[in-house]
Specification:
The chain is an all-alpha fold. Helices cover 39% and strands 0% of the residues. The protein has helices at residues 19-46, 65-70. The longest helix is centred in the middle third of the chain and has 28 residues, at 19-46. The radius of gyration is 36 Å and the shape is rod-shaped. The model has no long low-confidence stretch (mean pLDDT 75).
Length: 87
């Protein structure tokens, strides 16, 4: 048995899709993805897996480690030349 005067919820009003809300959500998601892509691109560009060492300049041309230390042009000094101060 069906009631003649009763209207179910949502049946009386036509369904409308709010395109502005959908467009806003899509725009926010696209903007977030673009920002994430930029941040990740900058991170990977800076961290390529290479590293810089502070080795002596003569180390590339030297035949062995001792020759590299003797021919070093960097700020490495021998332990014999270090001065100690006692207070």
């Amino acid at each position: 048995m069906r009631c003649v005067g009763a209207v179910r919820a949502g049946e009386g009003s036509p369904r409308t899709v709010d395109h502005a809300v959908i467009g806003g959500v899509v725009a926010v998601v696209v903007f977030a993805m673009l920002c994430l892509l930029i941040v990740l691109g900058r991170y990977f560009a800076r961290h390529k897996g290479t590293y810089f060492t502070h080795e002596a300049k003569g180390a590339d041309d030297a035949a062995d480690a001792d020759t590299a230390i003797i021919n070093a042009e960097g700020g490495h000094t021998n332990s014999d030349e270090k001065k100690e101060y006692y207070i």
